[in-house]
Amino acid sequence: xxxxxxxxxxxxxxxxxxxxxxxxxxxxxxxxxxxxxxxxxxxxxxxxxxxxxxxxxxxxxxxxxxxxxxxxxxxxxxxxxxxxxxxxxxxxxxxxxxxxxxxxxxxxxxxxxxxxxxxxxxxxxxxxxxxxxxxxxxxxxxxxxxxxxxxxxxxxxxxxxxxxxxxxxxxxxxxxxxxxxxxxxxxxxxxxxxxxxxxxxxxxxxxxxxxxxxxxxxxxxxxxxxxxxxxxxxxxxxxxxxxxxxxxxxxxxxxx
Length: 256
Ligand code: IPE
Ligand code: IPE
Ligand code: MG
What we know:
By secondary structure, the chain is α/β, with parallel strands linked by helices. The protein has one domain: Undecaprenyl pyrophosphate synthetase (3-Layer(aba) Sandwich). Helix content is 46%, strand content 13%. The chain is built from 9 helices and 6 strands. The protein has helices at residues 7-15, 28-34, 39-60, 79-102, 118-131, 147-163, 174-180, 226-237, 247-253; strands spanning 20-24, 64-71, 106-110, 138-145, 191-194, 213-216. It has a 6-stranded parallel sheet with strand order 3-4-2-1-5-6, with helices on both faces. The radius of gyration is 19 Å and the shape is globular. One 3-methylbut-3-enyl trihydrogen diphosphate binds at residues 24-26, 68-71, 74, 198, 200, 202.
């Protein structure tokens, strides 16, 4: 059994509430189009759905919520949409950070920071510092994030350690690579949700999703509220996670 599929993962399965939920919030553009509104109206409505799910997770006692807000491929969108999205991220961050802090939420941003505007970088740093000692929900926002970028940056940093003589290639194993990846200090995602009807991972958490339960729904992200989330949680609760074991082994370890 590797460090990633531990006894605590197995014990957790029996509690049937995911510790870590990772979500691709997709379908904002189509939500707006259906209402003859500009795509940006869908993104604004998407922020409301995000707030609702954050509140729900904080109340329910879920430990970590990781949200895909902007992928490393989303720069390919029309320039106007990209800049409106960046503005929306900045204004939402400014508007919500105090409320998040008051609710004991710890905010973390993952992704390649280099492409952010100085204003956004500064606001992110401030928000992370303000909330760093909070002990409630860990809210991870993936911005300019890509699973391939994550694996590449981890590999580059390991290469630097080897060049400087602090590490030998023989020391590279799964747990070492894992320790250089985003989210390395948090539990593995238990449940992955993608709204908007597409059944793909779109370069989200490639390394971290190895044993995550996948859930896809046609519901467009701005319509994904408590009830839709509860249906996803219910689907998760009815699954048997086996981490390579047999079903019988899992039943025995859960005392069923
Ligand atoms: C997801 O909604 C939000 C972002 C990628 C920022 P989309 O904008 O992809 O919505 P659809 O897929 O076009 O409906
Ligand atoms: C994935 O959605 C990225 C986010 C939700 C932030 P996309 O809408 O960009 O994914 P593709 O391009 O349809 O795969
Ligand atoms: Mg989309």
